[in-house]
Design a protein that fits this description.
AAA+ ATPase domain-containing protein, five-stranded parallel beta sheet, SLFN_3-like_DNA/RNA_helicase, Rossmann fold, 2 domains, six-stranded parallel beta sheet, P-loop_NTPase, globular, alpha/beta
């Protein structure tokens, strides 16, 4: 694996004063509550790129160092796990574990794997650190061998301390449908506290552009910042192939530059290639990545189109985003989400506790908007946009 992804969340990275103080607060929370019956939960809220994962990496390294080397600390000898429900990000954490003396690859697990091992009596958990907790399943998923009703509830039944990071704007699938209010309702009966990170670390963009992305993905349209006062490279393209060529050039210059897209194009998990075609532009979707290297760091993926499932949680230097057929602008310049054009069938799988048709439509639309938010915030140095919908494309170009 190249070091690009590892370096972004290494426990050797320097922290800001705020981040250092938060790590100390989290350690104190764990030390206090490990001596009680539990569970006690600490939630870190924050948008994409606000440094949540690097805080967790530092915390877990210190936690395991205490557990494995300190003779008298309350955390001495505790059995602790770091969980993430995202196979690409898990690869990065396990790579980090191989570089630190007190972190083991087995410390890093998918939630379902740990839950099932605990249920079989093979493991127990004292402290759990959960990255991307908005990806935890909130309903049974037999395909993934989870037979409970909620992964967080299952984990709370076993651990003494749980520390999670959570961003409701990164909820992407019905089976992991969460909101902050749903999370807080679940935690109401246990000792819990929270902290919110707000400073944007990933994107070298102005606050105005970050605000524009957040507004766009809540269907509040206003002009793109004409210039955002930074070196951030923001462009809107009328031709997807020209955007691809520009991204290829950026990739030659600085690396880690990729094309990504929303759903809305042929896509089936059948092992075959499925293509996105926009005029002269013609590239296949990302293929399942069987290697230990994250998708974006594989050289050949410059000739593929990434999705939320390969890019969520990762930094790219430049991202070229295709806004697919479901994202349109009506004649009154209102952003519309055409659910009938959405091709990611996994995202909208039915769940028994959500039955109100109007509410379901709203939730599905927000899941699509969340996917746009995730993809728009991948680029550290630049964001290039191509919209399938001609009216939307024209609107973005006129106001750029």
């Amino acid at each position: 694996m190249s070091n690009a992804a590892v370096d972004k969340i290494s426990p050797l990275l320097p922290l800001t004063t705020e981040q250092s103080e938060l790590v100390e607060r989290l350690l104190a929370f764990a030390t206090t509550h490990i001596q009680t019956d539990g569970p006690a939960v600490f939630t870190i809220y924050g948008d994409a790129g606000t440094g949540k994962s690097v805080v967790l990496a530092h915390l877990f390294n210190q936690l395991q160092t205490l557990a494995r080397t300190h003779p008298t600390n309350p955390l001495t000898g505790t059995e602790n796990y770091f969980l993430v429900n995202h196979p690409e990000i898990l690869k990065v954490y396990r790579e980090i574990a191989g570089q630190q003396p007190h972190l083991f690859k087995k410390d890093f697990q998918r939630p379902t794997s740990l839950i099932n091992q605990i249920n079989q009596g093979k493991r127990h958990a004292d402290v759990l650190v959960i990255d991307e907790a908005h990806l935890l399943l909130s309903q049974a998923d037999h395909y993934n061998n989870f037979y409970g009703t909620n992964q967080l509830t299952s984990l709370m039944a076993t651990a003494k301390v749980i520390i999670v990071v959570f961003d409701e704007t990164q909820v992407l699938r019905m089976k992991s449908y969460w909101t902050e209010s749903r999370l807080e309702h679940l935690l109401a009966s246990v000792p819990h506290t929270s902290y919110r990170l707000t400073h944007q670390f990933r994107m070298q963009a102005s606050d105005e552009l970050v605000s524009w992305i957040n507004d766009f993905t809540h269907q509040r349209l206003h002009p793109l910042p004409a210039t955002d006062g930074t070196q951030y490279d923001l462009r809107v393209f009328n031709d997807a192939e020209l955007m691809r060529q520009a991204i290829v050039q950026r990739n030659r210059e600085v690396g880690l530059s990729r094309i990504v897209s929303t759903s809305g194009y042929p896509s089936t998990l059948d092992g075959g290639k499925h293509f996105i075609t926009e005029g002269r532009f013609h590239l296949p979707w990302d293929q399942y990545n069987y290697t230990n290297t994250p998708w974006a760091e594989l050289p050949q993926t410059i000739d593929e189109v990434g999705s939320i499932y390969t890019c969520q949680g990762f930094d790219l230097n430049y991202v070229g985003l295709i806004l697919g057929p479901p994202i349109t602008l009506d004649e009154h310049q209102h952003l519309q989400i055409r659910l009938d054009r959405y091709t990611d069938v996994e995202a909208f799988k039915r769940r028994d506790d959500l039955t109100d048709p109007q509410k379901l439509t709203q939730i599905k639309q927000q899941l699509v908007l969340n996917s746009i938010n995730v993809l728009m915030k991948r680029g550290v140095k630049g964001l290039y946009i191509f919209a399938h919908d001609q009216r939307l494309r024209h609107y973005l170009q006129q106001r750029h």
